Known about the structure:
Order of helices and strands: H
Strand content: under 5%
Amino acid sequence: MTEKIDKEMQQEMELQLHEQYAINNNANLGSVVSLIITMLAV
């Protein structure tokens, strides 16, 4: 019983970490694209 709960908690934490990584990665990509577009515009 506790092993099942532990596995569920671990899976939930992994999903949250992955979501946070994806959000950060998308934000970084957006910043790089904005920088490149600004440099091209100048």
